[in-house]
Amino acid sequence: MARKTGSHAEITGPRIRAAALELFARHGYAAVSMRQIAAEVGVQAGALYTYTADKQSLLFELMRNHMEHLLGCWEEEPRPDDPLACLEAFTRFHIRYHLDRPDEVFISYMELRNLEPEHFAVIEGLRRRYERELEAILASGREDGCFTVPDTKVATMGLIAMLTGIGTWFRDTGRLSRFDVEQLYWDMVRGAVGVPDAAAGPGRAGSGGDAALSAAAE
């Protein structure tokens, strides 16, 4: 008989994943037991195995879901034909997406070492797909002559590390707003690929970044 919408499994499964996400982010994967996850959800430890094979499977599912959702959301973003505009779109998308999901981002980077080899290979494949999206933008800009990037792969890795690192220090209660951070980091990205301020055009991020810098200095 088909399971009805809103059944026990459909409710408990997401709760288990949410609890695992929170506990892994707070305490680290190695320090969390299946019993702790069960207690957080309010079920017996043995009941967890109805929804997941083991703790490793939970970690893998969380990381795979994160990467697949990231790729899916980026695919839905408008893609300007102009490489500079496309790079700006990627930069702002990456910042917004990651700041909205600090626990998922933390786990996806800090717990890679705890994945079994076959799971690691899947996650690495998804990460490479995302990196290739940015590398293609950089290659297009270099071909058009608007970016100065000697090595697009190295630039890709550096830019993604820089943008993802925002989550380690940014707080919504801090002196900079998310908009300020977007502007400042877009200025840094633009500079990293060799685009002068004037190339951003009137009303684009160049002037906004200057305003954000002024606000940050106050």
Assign the CATH topology of the largest domain: Tetracycline Repressor, domain 2
Number of helices: 9
Question: Structural class of the helices, strands and pairings?
Answer: mainly alpha
The domain count comes to 2
Helical coverage, percent range: 55-70%
Described by strand count, sense and barrel closure, the largest sheet is:
none
How would you spell out the order of helices and strands?
HHHHHHHHH
CATH class of the largest domain: Mainly Alpha
How many beta-strand segments?
0
Distance between the termini: 65 Å
Pfam family, one: TetR_N
GO molecular function: DNA-binding transcription factor activity; transcription cis-regulatory region binding
DNA-binding region: 33-52
Protein name: Transcriptional regulator, TetR family
Structure commentary:
By secondary structure, this protein is mostly helical. The protein has two domains: 1-52, Arc Repressor Mutant, subunit A; 56-217, Tetracycline Repressor, domain 2. The protein is built from nine helices and no strands. The protein has helices at residues 8-27, 34-41, 55-76, 83-99, 102-110, 117-144, 152-164, 178-192, 205-217. Helix 1 packs across helix 2, helix 1 packs across helix 5 (102-110) and helix 3 packs across helix 5 (102-110). The longest helix is centred in the middle third of the chain and has 28 residues, at 117-144.
